[in-house]
Amino acid sequence: MRPGPLAPLLLAVLSSVACAGAPRPAAAPAPPARAGACPPRPACDAPPPAALPRGFRHTRSRLVASGWPRHRGRDLFARPGGPQWAIAKFAYGPQDDDLEGEDVEAYLLRGCSGAWERLGTFRTSDDDRPHPTAEGIPDTGGRVYLDLTAGRRLDVGRHRVHFAVAGDGTSADLFIEVLPPGARVAVTDVDGTLTSSEVAVVGELFGGAPPAAHPGAAEAMRALADSGIHLFYVTARPEWLVGSTRAWLRRQGFPPGILHTTIGVTGAFGGAAAHYKTIELGWLKARTGIVPSFGFGNMPSDVTTYTAAGIAPSGCYYYKLGGDLRGGVHHDDYRALAPALFSPPAACAP
């Protein structure tokens, strides 16, 4: 997002009117298959087991849950032999009140196919007994940290974890992509890079129409996915917008990928946004050894971030951005860019 003096205030106000937990939206119609392309990654949209609410353990939790649910899961890239965490946050209402000391049921759709596996019942954290930081996510209360390496390790492929609050049946989802050796990743900003404007999300949250995508943007990302490249959507939006952001990407026809927001309730702007994205790409390299092959942005901060991450300038594309692009590529039409982004892959990963 473009920095501005009202931006933090706007997001603070929006946090009092936005609602999470909406049904999964229908995806845009699938485009015709491209000759020589990898099969599309699974949408992972099988309905999870029905939740049967059984009431909360604590009286306070009933009061907290009188607000609307703003639960969210944290997507993850992982390696087969590395750490594999499923991390989610459970909170309600305009103040993002944590749901502490309550049971959450967890389910896994391994490989995005077959039957859902029940992983067990887990208890949300509280401020008095925080969980150690994992995957760079500190425990601020109301979180579940599920270590999948303890007898549940995931193979190469895309997987979905579904959490349901035992007290009321509200839920959160996350996606994990376990990458094979040689995997390639493309990272893209969202606001202004894929959406029609930097602040389009503001109008939507105040009851306006959802933002449009730049013409051809979804097609360009599909060209990369068809080439076997994994998509990493990185936005400085606040954490509670992960669900609506994922829904927007799906509606607009963007290919499945890993989505990260900030972990705060107000998001990040300007230099703080660049710092956040730099940390994200640092974590990607630390976890997987991967430096993205492509980067897409629309702000000088994106140039700074992608340069610092070591992405080759020839793989960096900046939408309608002037100034010093550090060797990156200026473009003003994704429709013209998309054909050049497809490269028939030698092999396709699950």
UniProtKB/TrEMBL annotation:
Name of the protein in its database record: LNS2/PITP domain-containing protein
Gene3D superfamilies noted in UniProt: HAD superfamily/HAD-like (3.40.50.1000)
Keyword Flavoprotein in annotation: no
InterPro entries, A to Z: HAD-like_sf, HAD_sf, LNS2/PITP, PI_transfer
GO MF terms, alphabetically ordered: phosphatidylcholine binding; phosphatidylcholine transporter activity; phosphatidylinositol binding; phosphatidylinositol transfer activity
Domain LNS2/PITP: from-to ranges: 185-332
Cellular component terms per the entry's GO annotation: cytoplasm
Keywords, alphabetical: Signal
